Every structure is written in structure tokens, then in C-alpha cells.
Amino acid sequence: MPFLEENLLEERKSPTSKTSKTTYLLFISISISLLLFTASPPPKSTYHSLYVSVSESENVTVSHHLLILTRRPHVAGSPANADAASYVLSTLTSHSLRTHISSYHVALNYPLSRSLTLTRAHPLGPTITFSLDQEIYAGDPYADVAREAVPTFHAYARSGSVAGNVAYVNYGRVEDYATLKGMGVNVSGTVVLVRYGKIYRGDIVRNAYEAGAVGVVVYTDTKDYGGGVDGKWFPEDRWMPPSGVQVGSLYIGAGDPTTPGWASTSACERMDDEEIERGGGIPLIPSLPVSSADGEAIMEAIGGHVAPDDWQGGAESIDYRVGPGPGFLNLTYNGNQTITTIQNVFGVIEGVEEPDRYVLLGNHRDAWTFGAVDPNSGTATLLEVARRLEKLQKRGWKPRRTIILCNWDAEEYGLIGSTEWVEENREMLASRVVAYLNVDCAVSGAGFHVSSTPQLDKLLKQATQQVQDPDNSSQTVYESWIQSNDSQMVGRLGGGGSDFASFIQHVGVPAVDMFYGGEYAVYHSLYDDFVWMQKFGDPMFHRHVAVASIWGLVALKLADDEFLPFDYVSYASELQRSTKELENEILGKPISLSPLYKSIEQLNKAATKINDQRKALEGNGWASMWGKDPLKVRELNDRLMMAERAFTDRDGLFGRPWYKHLIYGPSNHNDYGSKSFPGVDDAIEKAKSSNTTESWKSVQHEVWRVSRAVTHASLVLNGKFT
Amino acid sequence: MPFLEENLLEERKSPTSKTSKTTYLLFISISISLLLFTASPPPKSTYHSLYVSVSESENVTVSHHLLILTRRPHVAGSPANADAASYVLSTLTSHSLRTHISSYHVALNYPLSRSLTLTRAHPLGPTITFSLDQEIYAGDPYADVAREAVPTFHAYARSGSVAGNVAYVNYGRVEDYATLKGMGVNVSGTVVLVRYGKIYRGDIVRNAYEAGAVGVVVYTDTKDYGGGVDGKWFPEDRWMPPSGVQVGSLYIGAGDPTTPGWASTSACERMDDEEIERGGGIPLIPSLPVSSADGEAIMEAIGGHVAPDDWQGGAESIDYRVGPGPGFLNLTYNGNQTITTIQNVFGVIEGVEEPDRYVLLGNHRDAWTFGAVDPNSGTATLLEVARRLEKLQKRGWKPRRTIILCNWDAEEYGLIGSTEWVEENREMLASRVVAYLNVDCAVSGAGFHVSSTPQLDKLLKQATQQVQDPDNSSQTVYESWIQSNDSQMVGRLGGGGSDFASFIQHVGVPAVDMFYGGEYAVYHSLYDDFVWMQKFGDPMFHRHVAVASIWGLVALKLADDEFLPFDYVSYASELQRSTKELENEILGKPISLSPLYKSIEQLNKAATKINDQRKALEGNGWASMWGKDPLKVRELNDRLMMAERAFTDRDGLFGRPWYKHLIYGPSNHNDYGSKSFPGVDDAIEKAKSSNTTESWKSVQHEVWRVSRAVTHASLVLNGKFT
Per DSSP, which regions of A439-541 are E strands? Predict the structure, then answer.
């Protein structure tokens, strides 16, 4: 082919003519012609079917992983948790993933001393000193290692000693204090007794402080967590034993409190205690969590008005009264805050066609005690996903996009491992990550639950249609799922409950959180161990296997589908629904939602349009036969990926600038809350209490902000400058 | 080819096997083989050479455009400026660009009434009432239309009447008020006389307000603008006539003040006057600009201490004294603020290979008067760029990336047209724009000047090496440029001086601003007309042609080069240099710059590494012969493009959250300032005046913030997650 050779020489002579690719294309074309008469690999869907075709032994592998991961308590920063990291790392490596550990140096704290005594002031009764220990039952296989568990405490609790009459304040919500005020009960100067259950414990202590309390005791009411006096409890039943205590963090926010917004690297800037206090995420009065037995003992010492009906305990309980007093509590907590090294473990399978587009699967590893449910059911499942992906790779599969399995540390303290990593890698995440798929507790019981950003709804339905229900082999997970849910099938990610938070709420990465569960009464207690899982959570480990199937399948579709399986029409419908809800909240107020409705209409149009464009690009016959311009596919996918980012606003929520997403974020008074439009929600709450013109104007401003974010998302979907 | 057909049938039968492209590739390869034995187009560099190969007539075309654009005064919002928009639109359309207009509804204001009188209180002298008119000279061809010019005023000036003894405050800088204080002069309650020149006029009025003045008169000192009593002035010479007045805006900030951070669309949220006032960008005391003649008349009425030597006027001036009084000024200004429609005009040439990557060339159109220099020398040049691009297209050239020519409106009021558009399109700009190339005043005299973000330095040098010096045909622009500059050749974009601001400072888009100029004394006056340009600015219009060459060539390289011509090693050196400067400023203070130095070292490493990776991808022999994977090229280019974004911080500068870029932004006390590290600069200024431990800690915090941004940029260049 002399013509070709001549041209090539010319190319060499003229270094500026590199951009002319015609001759190279010719070369390529001929080479392809010669090379391609070999068998083509099976389509990706074949591999996806293979991925979910479960054999008999998966459950054994998963349960083995869980057994090993939960041999000892492994709180963040402990040697036991570093051992668990090694196990995860070596398992991922053994499954042919490229692995590494990313460490951060974060401020964690541990209890040094705790004491709680109850005195009856009038008439002077005996003083009870609570042991604050969780009992070990006869025959407990973990009796030896149980003492390695961190003593029951609240992470980031205020150190100090306080004393006061005790007042009962129900779940410690803002409205509970309002009820007490209405009853003429003043909790100022008291130590409040609160029951766990409705709001995040950080908000429990904050609300108590704001109501004037000097200390907080949070207990597990048997009404909410089972295992009452006459009932059965672990190890006989799934319920919390009377001495069981829910440990947990009080931090309101995400990530290391000493490094707000940036990564806790070895030599980084750190806020001092005073600055952290000003940040508002750290409690200002001491607190302790206690068991149902201790809570009941304290309750018996409270007199005064009988509490309202919905404040009462179970059928067998005494009448709850609100006090304050005559019971008097002395509470001491001293904690030790240190900069501790934590480890995030990663396993990577590099994408072949789009190595710079990422699908992330994440679960945390650190546990308050053994972590059989929380979080190592998820960790075991993650390792099972790794095993199956290796199986696919051995059969010739390679993902189109890069898949990263992430195993986070220090989630329990405040989503720390994931948040520090997200803060460090923020810029890359913002422009390259397709989706983050979280599984915290993979299994705590029966019933499939999933939350996600709405463009993923359809994909989640499709994936669950391909996986068998672990509890009813005659149907799919999808079929059981739609039978069990009355209203909204897919939940949303407004709360700060797990490691998805920084991905969606700080960066705007489409996200999913899923689990099998319900009736998980031993949450954050010493009894969250392998025995509990085997007896009550998932005796056959088939639910774990099902989560591995759904989680991995969603990841595979996101990683392999030429066009990202995102549908923003669902997003528009969901926003429409949320706006309708909002309408009810502001009835009769001087607020117009029409900017928001208009922007949602635009979004719906843009979403429909891009769906049509995708169909056109997918094409039929010739269009698809000829293959697609990879940059055209990329362009459309980038719009689908980046539209979620557009829901974030760089200035963030008012007063909480770390939270950038204007649709999904925690509510100001309950970090577990998952309402839409958190900024609007906060503003309404303020306006309802102050009821000034100015405050309602702020609500309108927040409505405008959301509508502008929605408009930005439409523009991104359209992919055209105005 | 039976094998193929069979496979195709199989594909049709199995809809899930679409991702298998083997068979299609085969099809493609054969088709390419058949098709490619046609001539290949010339390399892009040939077109680029053609672009700069200027014939004899370019200057005629450019001068014709300028003549038409400057026929009448055309302030933003005027019908004359809408006519100019039509001219730009039709010219771009005639040059085969796809054009459109994007309108915004912005708050502009115009003077309703103005008056200024001077009385000598002691002894009672005659009252002078200033006409505040700019005189028309005999034979002025624009005499008829000159009255269409907006009366001399300050845009966004405070309406009201004030009176007081007049005090002379030099350039009205913070340090000038400090000098007065040192002299025992109290300016509280006075109307201050300030001369234009060293700082932004918005800061002049703000500083006066902060010093306690009740009104401000800003005049043009012949010392700084030429044309003194015995000198010559326009039309005899380039200098400002005695009655010439520099009009201009006082707004401190960018974009419509009623829509901070969002686009001024027809039905959008708007801040009310009170909220705007709280924003701090709008002056709180009335002011007027006056001529040198009026300024001198006022100066003559000022007694008191003789002003310091460097406060004095030219050789022919009287002695300047500081007052206050005995001269007494009555100043009235009333303006009319209305929501006005403005038009941005766009012309697009769609990229063939990467239509979703953009190179933007921008210039504004609105002028305070005729705008021959400011800004329509740039507009005429933009139209010349369009003409030449059409010429290339006719010869078969198509850009790799999309090129957009932008013609902004209402720049003079506060970069409004460009800012509203950037705010509306922020998300797309952030992820898709390669660079923004600004030309405001293309030509005001001799001497090439350019400012840019540092990764573009090398490209600017290369481009100027390809263009002939318009004032010395024996050498290139580059050669004259290096001869004329003693220290730093390329300036930086920290100031708020033109439409590049929102691109670089709000979004983090790499940017350039260039012009030919010097001794442009008629700035913002009635005399900035075609006659001035023809007589003094660019008699042959060859400088215009040279700007068109450089501007377009830089754009072509950015649009056509397979790999983006960005070099971050320059960025690292530049940051190193700026940090050294910073070191001098904080000598002896408790500030460590080592985090910053470390991060710059990382950046330098990352920049070197990506340069090597580019070389490897560009390859020799086989590697380049086979063509490159377009997604691999894209991946590397994305890192180069997005690294600049990483210098922005979503929270923005302290107290000025709209400014997101931590390296380049205006200084707090002078919007024209263009220092590096504006956040550090602000903090140092505060710390130096308060000198508390807390304030120096804030400086350290700002140093940390910058170093984290630099680290983010390195991570983006590396393209790897930690």
C-alpha cells in the first residue's frame, strides 16, 4: 500500500499535522478487519444473569466472613478493627481486586469514667448506683471477648459531672418540650430522662440543652425495643435484654469535627475545642445511655403529673410521670479525645472503556460492639460481591466503567471515614462518579428496604425483578417488596444515617442505600453478635445473598450499560409529590410555590427529551449496527451524571454550609429526618415560631433557591447554553 | 459475508446483546477501508497559519465595523445599544455562525437630575454652579448625536442632596485617609474631593463613606490624564479635554445587584433595596464625577494644610491643600433605577469531534458614550475573528471543539451581561468549558498586554510568536512584548475589571484578557469616539488586526489541539512566586507558609507528571499512527480542564461568598486589585489593623484554605482517588 506509506512519511516530517487521523483510521480499519474474525465475547447481560445465578454455597461463604469479622468487638481506632481491615483487604486482594488502604487521622473519643446514681430526695430513699454494664448470659460464646467492648457511652459526649432532679421528656423532641411547657412543667436545671426512638440521639441532647436541662439520660424503652419484664429477650428471642444499652454518637454533622470540610490528613489544619463548640455539632451538657432496666428504675423515682397517653410505656409498665423529681440524678462522664488513625479499605476493578467513570459500592466496618448486623452483615455481603465479580472476570467479563468497593472506618462516630475521603477527593468525585451504592446493615431481619435518589428508582425495580426473594422462592424480591409497601416504595436520602450522606448531600452524587430488616432491637448493644444474626437476623444467610445480588446487579448495570440507566422523569414526579406535601405545610401563608412547580415542569420536559435522545442514539438497525461515537455516548451520559450535581448549591443550606444539596439533607432538628427541601423546611420551622414578615420572606427565598437548583438540573439535562 | 449476516440476525433476536460491538466494528472497519481512499484534509496547523496570514484589507473591515458600532452613544439598555446588538448579530450570521440573543432583565439606573455648586463660606465668595457638561469642539462630526449620551454620573450612585465643607483626599485610598488623620484633619461631615486613578471608583466612594464624608466629588487630574491648561487635548492631542468627565459604575461586585448569585430572568426572585444595601456593594452617600476644570475650580476653594508632595498636581497646578473648607459644596444627584432588558449576542461554530467542549471568546458591546476604544475596538475585532473563521470554514476547516463568540451587554454597570449568563449556565460552564478569552478594549494605543491564568502562559507566548508586530513589521508581537516588559510578562486576573471575572473568579474557568494600549486618557468620556481612535488609538487599525490574530489563534489552538495546550508547571511556578511575595508581607508574624509551599510542590509534581503522560499518549511511530482512543484523550484533557476548577472553594472568600476562586480575586479594598490569594490578603489587612491572636489565626486559616485548594488541583491533575 504505497499510498499509505507515503502519507505516513509525510506525517513524520510534519509534526504539526498530528491531528489528521485519516491515515491512522485506515490502518486501524484494516487491522480490525483482520483481527475480528474471532469469537466475540458474550453480551454484558449474560454476565449480569450469571452474577445473580446463585448456587448453593454462597450463604456459607457469607456467614463465614461474618463469623470472622465479628469475632471481637471492633470499635473504630481499635487494634481489632485494624485486624478487620486486614481481613477485608486480604479477601478483596484474593478476589483479584487491586486494593489499597487510605488512612486518616481523626478525633475519636472513648470513655474514661462514667457514673450514674439515683437518690430519692423526698422522702430520702436509698441511693442506687447503676453498674452501666451489659450482662453476659450463660453460655455466651463471646463472654471472654465481651469485656473488650467499649463501655456504654455517647461518642463526643460532654465531659463533666452534673446533678439535678430528673424529669421525663418522652422522646426529647422539640414538641415534647412544648407539651411539658403546656403542662406547666419546667425542665430547667434538671437531668432529663429520654427514651430512644424517634429522633437522632445528637438531637435528643441538643434539644435537652436548649430546654435548659443540665444532663441527659437516654434509655431503651421496652415498649419500643421489646424484651419487657415478662417477655423474652436475647438469647431466647430477638429483643433487647433488660441490661442492653444502645451506644452511639451525638455528633451532629459529618466527618471529623476538628476538620470541617477538609480531609484529616497527618499534618492538616485542625479546629480547636472552642471553634468546634462554636460549630454547634458537639453537645454542651453531659449525657449517658442506659438500659431499659435502669431507665425503669429511674422512671419509678419520678413523680409529678402523669405523662400524656402517648408518652406512656408498654402494657406492663408503671404509669410514667414527668417530674421533675423527686428522683435526683448524679451523672458523671469523662471522655478522652485523641487523634486516632482509621483505615478505609478499597478494592478496584478498572473499567475497560471508561476507566474514568466510577461506580462505588460502600459499607463501613467499625462497630460499637461485635457488629454482626451493624455493619458487618454489609461487610460480609461486600466480600461476597467481590467474590462474584471475580467469577465474572474469570469468564472474560470486564466492566465498561471502573468499579470500586469501599470499606469505611469510623462511620459510627459520625460518618467519618467516608466523609474524610469524600472531602479529600471531592473534585474528582464531583466530575467522575456515576453513583454511590451504600449498604450499612445488610440484614437485620425480613423485608427489603431501599432509599435512593429518584433517577435510580426504575433501575432498582428492574434489579429486584431479577433476584429471587430469599424468604419465598416462588417470587422475586420485587414482588414481595410491592406487596409489603403500602405507599412509597423507594425511600429518600435526606437523613444523615449512613455513609451515603457526604456523597449525595455534600457532592451531589446519585446514591442508593439498601437493607433487609426490621425488628432490630439489639441495635448498637453488646448483643449485636453472630449468634443473634444466626438465630434471628438471617438464619440461612439467604437475605445476605439476596442483598449481594441486588447490590451487585445495580452496580453492574451502572458500570456496564452503555447509557447510564438514570431516569429523571421519576425525579420530576418525586419533586412534584414533595412540593404537594410542602403546599399543605404552608397553607394560608404568604408563600408562592409556583416558581418551584414551574422549574419541576421544565425538569420533566428536559427528562423526557433526554430519554428520547437516548432512544435515538441507541437506535435500531443501521444506527446501532455501526456502533456509536464514544464521545456522543459520553456526552449524553455526562448530562445524566451531572444533573444530580446541579441540585447542589455551592453556598449550601443556610447556617449549615457543608450540606450542599437543596433537595435531600437532614432536617435541622432531627439528623435522621429525611424530608425533601431541608432549607425550606428549616425556614418554615423558624417562620412558624417567630411568624414575622421577614421570616416568611426567608421561606420564599428558600423556595426560590430550590427552584433555581431544579432549573440548573434541567439545563444540564438539556446540555445547551442559554 | 454470511458470517456477518448471521451475527446481525442474532443481534436482532437478542436485544440485550447490544453492548457487544465486535460485529459492528468489523462493519465499520471495512467501510472505512472503502471510504478512506480519498484525500485527507490538511492538518489543523495549516488552517491556523492561514488564520494569521493577514491580507491588506483586514484593517478596512475592522475600521468599518468600528465606525458603524460607534455612530451613536449606546449605553446599556438604550435603543442605540439594541441596534448595535442587531448589527453584531447580523454580522455574525453573515459569517455563517449559528447566532442567538440571550436577554436578561436587570436593574440599571440613569441620572434624572444632578447639580453641584461651590460657595466660599469664609470670606463669602461667589457661588459657582457647575454645568457638568462635556463640551463639543468645533467641527466635531458627532456634535449632533453627542446629546444622546447619558449625562455624566456614577452608576448606582446614592440619590440625595448633601452639603459640606470640601476636603481634598488625594486618591481616596484607605492610606490617604490615614495620612489626613496623621495631619490632624477630620473629614467627617465633609464633601470630599478625590482624584481618579489609583483605585476603583466604587472603593473611592466606600472609603469616603467609611471615613465619615457625606458626599464625594471625583475629578480627573490633568497630572494623571494629561491635557493640562497649557497642554493640548483632544481633538489636537490624545489627552482628556478640560471639560471631559470619566463616567462609571460604583457597584462593588459582579452582576445585577438585585439577583446576587442567580440569573436575572423575566420572572425571578429579586432582592429589595434594603437587602441590597445590606449586601454592601452599593454606595451609601451621593457622589458625582467631574472634569479637570471643575476639579481645579473646587481645589482653588480649599484652604488649610498644604497637601503632601505626592498629593500635588502637575507642574502648572496651584498648591493643593487639604481643607476642609473654606469651599463649601452642595451636591445633588437623583437617579432612576429600572429593570431594563439587555442583550447578550452569541455566535456558535459547533465542534465536530468534541461538540460538548467549549472555547469562549467574549467582549462587551455597551459603552458609556461612543465606545470607540471601550469596548467596541474589541467588538470590531470580534467580528473580524468571525470573518476569518468563516474563511477557514470555507476551506474545509471544522473545529474539534465548539467555539462561541460572546458579545456581552451592560458590562459597564458591573459586568452584568456576562455575569447573569454565567450564573444561569454555571453548571454547564463548570464541567464543559475549556477556556474563556476576553477582549474588552482591544486597542487604546501601542503595546501588547495580556493577563491570564498561568497554565495558559506558554500558549500565549507561542501565539504571539506567530503574529507580526503591527508597529514594527520586522519582528513578531512576542519579540516587541519581551522587549517592552521588564518583569512579569503575563499579568493575572485577580481584579474585577472586565467580563472574565465571573468565568475565572466565580466558576474557575481558565481565562485570558488581552489588549493593545496605553495613554488612554479619554476613558469613559464623551471623547472616546471613532475620531480619537483614528487619530491616536490605532490610525491604521493594524493593532486591531493583530489582536484579532492573537485572540483567534489562541482560540483555535484551544479548540483544535487534540491535547489541551495547558501547562500547570507554569501555574506552580507562579504560585511559588506569589507565596514568596506573601512571605515578605508576613515577616515576623506567627504564620507558617509551609502548608502552601508543600501543596505547590505537589502541584509541580502532578503538572510534570501529566505533561509526561501527554507526551506518552502523543507517542511516536506506532502509538500515534494507530490513532488514539478518544476517551483516553478526553480523560487527560478533562484533568487539564478541571484542575483550574479545583482552585475554587465552594464556600468562597470570607464575607464575599460569590468569589469562589482562592488564588485570583479582587482585593477587599480595591476591586481593580489583582493580587494572588485574595482571602489571605483580606485576612492580613484585618490582622495588621487589629493585631490580635485571633486575627493572625484567621490569616493562618486562609493560608490553609489556599493550600488545600492547590492540593485539590494536584489530585485532579493526577486523576487518581486517594
Answer: 448-452, 511-516
Number of cross-chain residue pairs from A and B with Cβ atoms under 8 Å apart: 227
Select from A367, A710, A447, A696 the least CA-distant residue to A572. Answer: A710
Q: How are beta strands A327-349 and A160-168 bridged, if at all?
A: antiparallel
Question: How far apart are alpha carbons B258 and B696 in whole angstroms?
Answer: 35
- Which residue from A41, A47, A43 is spatially nearest to A552, judged by alpha carbons? A47
Q: For chain A, say whether B396 makes contact (Cβ under 8 Å).
A: no
- B1 to chain A, any CB pair closer than 8 A? The answer is no
CA separation for the pair A342, A408 (Å, rounded): 9
List, for residues B240-255, the tens digit of each pLDDT value.
999 999 999 999 999 9
Q: Does B24 touch chain A (CB under 8 A)?
A: yes
Residue B128 has pLDDT above 80, yes or no: yes
Query: At a CB cut-off of 8 Å and minimum separation 6, what does B266 contact?
Result: B105
Strand locations in B517-606, DSSP E?
none
pLDDT tens per residue across span B561-593: 999 999 999 999 999 999 999 999 999 999 999
The answer, as to whether pTM is greater than 0.90, is yes
- Cell 484523550 maps to which residue? B633
Going by pLDDT thresholds of 50, 70 and 90, the confidence category of residue B227 is low
Inter-residue contact A553 to A396 (CB < 8 Å): no
Interface of A with B in 314-353 (CB under 8 A): 346, 353
Interface check for A597 against chain B (CB to CB < 8 A): the answer is no
* B651/A652 touch (CB, cutoff 8 Å), yes or no: yes
**Separation between Cα atoms, residue A633 and residue A175, nearest integer Å:** 52
Neighbouring CB atoms inside 10 A of B268's CB total 20
Closest CA to A45 of A458, A629, A491, A557: A557
**Secondary structure E strands in B462-568:** 511-516
Which residue among B17, B268, B713 sits closest to A43, beta carbon to beta carbon?
Answer: B17
Which residues of B are less than 8 Å from A26 in CB distance? 32-33, 36-37
Q: Give me the residue from B425, B638, B701 closest to A269, CB to CB.
A: B701
- Nearest chain B residue to A11, by CA: B625
* b/e burial code for range B567-602 (CB count within 10 A of at least 16 → b): bbbbbbbbbeebbeebeebbeeeebebebbbebbeb
pLDDT of A21 above 80:
no
Structure confidence at residue A517 as a pLDDT band (50, 70, 90):
very high
Q: Tell me if chain B has a CB within 8 Å of the CB of A624.
A: yes
Percent of chain B with pLDDT over 90: 84
**ipTM higher than the 0.85 cut:** yes
For residue B73, say if its preceding peptide bond is cis, omega within 30 degrees of 0: no
By annotation, the residues of A acting in catalysis are: 411
Q: A604 CB contacts (<8 Å, ≥6 apart)?
A: A569, A572, A573, A576
Helix/strand number for chain B, H first, E second: 26, 14
**Residue for grid cell 472505512:** B32
The answer on pLDDT for B138 being more than 70 is: yes
